[in-house]
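User: My instructor asked us to take a sequence, write out its structure as tokens, and then describe one feature of it. I'm not sure where to start. Here is the sequence I was given:
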Amino acid sequence: MNGGADGALAGVRVVELASEQGAFAGKMLADLGAEVVLVEPYGGHATRHFEPFLDDVPGPERSLWWWHYNTGKLGVTLDLDEEADRGRFRELVASSDAVLEGEMPGRLGALGLDYEDLSPGHPTLVWTSITPFGRTGSRSLEPATDLTILAGAGAAWSCGYDDHRLPPVRPGGNQGYHTACLWAVEGTLAALYASRTLGIGQHVDTSMHAATNVTTEAGTYEWLVARATVQRQTFRHAAVRQTPQRLLTASDGGQVILALPRYGGEFRALVDWIVELGLADQIDDFFLLEMGVQRGGVVVSEVETDALVAAIYQAGSDALRYLVEHMPARQFFLDAQRRDLPVGILFAPEDVIEDEHFIARGFPVEVHHEDLDRSFTYPGAPFHAPASPWRVRRRAPHVGEHNGLV
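Assistant: Let's start with the prediction itself. The structure tokens for your sequence are:
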């Protein structure tokens, strides 16, 4: 592995068995520079028929879902139920560093194509499985979807509104699958490093349920440690006790998300901002903000036990709320960001793609589809890592486009 111009994973070959739940993991590896060879059945994988479609015209080469999740990959078709194609698959694995698959436990073993079957002849092979509950255990054969993973692992419980007469809200965007894929990629990278440095292969067994459960913030730990249940809240972290509202409507109807000042520098920035706007006389308890500066901030854990700390903390909240109510959302967001105050703004998807900050960061990228003689705007890297650049290298493959590889 190297960090050259072709990506941190240049020189790494990965065989991916096409699946809905593992597609994002393969995309991450490909966009980081690995040669990912995607294996589909003849006629293409079922996810080629997921909507939406280009120009609303269905077709296996027109699914935007397929386009997004399979950038950078090469595509071959094989029927693993046929002996000749099983032989081609074995040859492909023998020439690769890793395998990524989301098959239900037992299927590949029945075909003689599992890690235990292929690793003896390939001792440095890394094999990563992404299954609902892991390869072993009493639930290993239970089917699951992104929705059931989010519900069963606890994430959905924490998402929703203060009004608990309303049901929980499913996090959008395949977050259950994505979470599992992030863990799978981390495990794969660690195993590839061990393969290169120690000469040993490994089976990375990723449970979608476990991966999602350990990313429920404090929800699981509150229950395990204190037998307390967190409650969902509108646009803020679930908590045992209700916390102040953080999603506010600005003067122009736009919405912003607040994080309250805690540190001395944040109180100083807020005080200076208010003075600069000439609003010190309009802010109730402005002197408490100045005390926040003098004290070097507040310790949030003391809010419930120290009345003065609680008053200072509340004064910061009230001051920011006043500014929000008297300013357009974008102006408030930008002015606060310039002062290193941790606030956010609620964007629609099209706002993200068009925002100057995301553009400057290189998030929207243009990908040319030479088959259509058109270019399309794709979401780029979800993180910024200059030494390990993420780059969308090519469009998703057509059915069997690279069959010459096998």
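For the description part of your assignment, you could build on this observation: The first strand starts at residue 13 and ends at 17. Try explaining in your own words what that tells you about the chain.
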